[in-house]
Design brief:
The protein has 14 helices and 14 strands. By secondary structure, it is an alpha/beta fold. Helix 1 (16-30) crosses helix 14 (383-395) and helix 2 (71-90) runs parallel beside helix 3.
Length: 396
Amino acid sequence: MRLALLADTFPPLRSSGAVQLKDLSRQFARDGHDLTVMIPSSDILGSHVLEEIDGCRVLRLKAPRTKDISFVQRVIGESLMSSAMQASLARSPLADARYDGVIWYSPTIFLGSLVSRLKRQSDCRGYLILRDVFPEWAVDMGLLGRGIPYHYFKAVEAHQYAQADVIGVQSESNLGYFKTWSARPGRRAEVLQNWLDGEAEQGCSIRISDTPLKTRKVFVYAGNMGIAQGMDRLINLAAALRDRHDVGFLFVGRGTEADRLRRQAKDRGLSNVLFHDEIPSEEIPGLYAQCHFGLVALDPRHKTHNLPGKFLTYMRAGLPVLASINPGNDLAALIEDEGVGRASVDPAGADLPQLALEMLTAAGSAGSAAERCKELFGRLFSPAAAARQIVRGLRE
C-alpha cells in the first residue's frame, strides 16, 4: 500500500513517540509498503526538506515551534501547525501525491485538518494511533479546568476523531470512551498495543561502574520527567531505602520537573540517587544492561489508561518493573498477571518500599523474571504486529 504517516515527533527527537514511529516506519518498509512520513519542523530554512530514511520518504514541513516552550506558546504553535504544514506541503514535490491510507499519531490532537485534506485528495481511509486522551487527562491532573480552553481543545479533539475510520487505543479500558463515536456506521475503536523494535546493544556513555552506584542493585528510570509522571513518589522511595547500601536509583532524561527533582534529592542528601541528562535512544539498551529493575511512574490523578513506552523498553531488556501508577490502570494487572514486576496503585506510593524489597529478595531466586519480560515483549509488543493491524484497518 502507498501510505502516509503523520506525527509531530520523529528522529532526531528522542521521545518515546519518536522511537516508536521510527520503528513502525521501518516495519512498513520491511513489509513492502510505500511510506511517506510527514513531520512539522521549525528548524528547516525553506518550506520543506525531503529525505530518504530506512527505506521511507520523510518529508519535514515548515511549521511553528511546539517543543520546549511555554504552554501558551505551545497551544498557539500547535493550533497553527496543521495549516502551516498544508501550506508547506503545497510547495513540496509531494503536493499532489495520493495514498491508499492515512495514519496519524496522537498526541498531538492538532493534525485533523491535514488528515482531512489528504483523505479527501486520496479518497482513502484513516487510522488514528491514539496514545493518550487529551484534554481529559489534563483535567484529571488539575492542569486544565472546564472553561473556554477546555472546550476549545474538546472541539479540536472531536474534529480529529471525525477524520478516523479506526482508532487504535492503548488499553481495553479506553474503549468505553469511544462507545458513542463507534456507534456510527463505518467506525471502529480497537486496542492497538504499543510496540518497539529489537535493538542490539551499542554501548552507553553512562558507565555505572564509574559512579557512586557501582556494585549496587540499580532501579533505573529513563524518560520524561514531567507533571504527568508524579515522580516525587520515586524520590520518596529512594529516601526510604537510603540505608540499603546495596540499592541505587538512576534517573536519566529531561522534562519540566527534572531540575526540581534533582534539587530535592540533593537537599535530602540522597547519596543513593544519581541523575543524568537525556541520552540517545541507541544507548538505552547499553544502559539497561547495567541495571537490574525498571521504574514506571504515572500521576495517580490520571483517570485514563496508558502503557508508557519505557515499559516496553524494560521488557525488551529483561528488566522487571516497579510501577507506581493510577488506580484502575490496566498496566497493574498486566504486570502482576505476567509476573514481570510489582505495581503500586496507592496514590501516595506508601507501599513502594515494601514492593521494592520484595523484588530485591525475589531477584536472587527467580531468575526467570527476565525471560518472562522478554517473552511478553515478543508476544505483544512487536512493530510487525502493530503494522499488520493498522494495514488491516485501512483495507477494511
